[in-house]
Specification:
137 residues, mainly alpha, 3 helices, 2 strands
Length: 137
């Protein structure tokens, strides 16, 4: 049972961050591999595409006067995609992995992963407190 409908979104982002960590680690492991090109796992551009003005948005049904009037759902967010990063400076052997950049991305990814874990814990605690308070009544 999920603590809330937000929980599934948080867990999918947690999965994304975990997979992105693997891609960054792979880039670092291949730093000395000739002709290796930096890869990245992207999700943000898919979200931007889904929320752009040109993309049709699925409207939520308002079945009660107490519902919010201007709430829109995102339509068809695609799975994350593994891409080859373009426009990076190549070394003499054709490799374009920058250790500094990858370490920075790894730190950023870890901070987001930790924030997601914290959010899931808070969501679960809130759900547990609701159950406990309803059991007392």
């Amino acid at each position: 049972m999920e603590a809330s409908n937000v929980t599934s979104i948080l867990f999918s982002q947690l999965d994304f961050r975990s997979e992105r960590q693997k891609v960054i680690t792979s880039n670092i492991a291949n730093i000395n591999t000739p002709n290796y090109k930096t890869k990245d796992l992207v999700f943000d551009h898919e979200l931007d595409k889904a929320t752009s003005k040109n993309t049709p948005v699925l409207q939520m049904a308002k079945t009660s006067s107490t519902h919010f009037s201007n709430v829109n759902a995102v339509n068809n967010i695609q799975n994350p995609k593994l891409i080859e990063v373009q426009g990076l400076e190549e070394q003499n052997d054709g490799n374009n992995v920058s250790l500094d950049t990858q370490m920075g991305e790894m730190s950023k990814n870890k901070m987001l992963f930790d924030a997601l874990q914290s959010s899931i814990k808070k969501d679960s605690r809130l759900f547990r407190s609701v159950i406990e308070s309803s059991a007392k009544n």
